[in-house]
Design a protein that fits this description.
There is one protein chain. With about 260 residues, the protein is of the alpha+beta class. It has one domain: Fumarylacetoacetase-like, C-terminal domain (Fumarylacetoacetate hydrolase, domain 2). Strand 8 and strand 9 form a beta hairpin. Helix 1 crosses helix 3 and helix 5 packs across helix 7. The longest helix is centred in the first third of the chain and has 17 residues.
Amino acid sequence: MSSEMIQRYGDELFEALRGNTTVAPLTERESELDLDTAYRISLHLLQRRLDDGEAVIGKKIGVTSQAVQDMLDVRQPDFGYLTDRMVYADGDTIPIADNLIAPRAEGEIAFVLKRDLRGPGVTSAEVLAATDFVFPCFEIVDSRIQDWRIRIQDTVADNASCGVFALGDTGRRPAHVDLGTCGMVMEKNGVIVATGAGAAALGSPLNCVAWLANTLGRLGVPLKAGEVILSGSLVPLVPVASGDHIRVTVGDLGSCSLRFG
């Protein structure tokens, strides 16, 4: 695909993001679209956001669970970028109108790094040593692709279908939490709608962050001290709408809750 087409699709996704609208699936228009090209579209979309005043504050990992990999018929995760306009606080009410299109909530564990991780060759033990705090968190995924008709290339181009996110108000040192076996309970409007465990994400959220450090490291991109890394959902995606209240509780980590207006 030519650089002009990459810019065109990146611009189209940026305008959809700013206009809170959707576009036709890229894979239905470009049958030969591959993952490398999709990431190049994503980078152009990111540059448009940076030029518009946003700043990168972290990264997210997606497609870590078996269920989502089966849905997209892939056997690898993907990644996107977090910016300062995407973050909410625990307990906030997130507006949907003019802000989100068809949001779905994912319960995750977030990592805040205290030093850089530069792959390739990063191990899960090195991720543990480089992490300052871990938090329960919500990623509210959203898609600028019409009707969520996505293949892996579509979601990659669309910044891994990331909408907004929020961390719980209390973090813990990672050495005090068994990240592979910790249990997660997700509630919607007071009713339990999903349960999961750390092992649902590539065996452990630590493995997810190591995968990201090594994948980006091959491109010369580090995970930086101070960045927030969302490690992937431990439960199935749950659609949310105006009026909903959601809460996720993770073992000894505590909880995170959000409302939607």
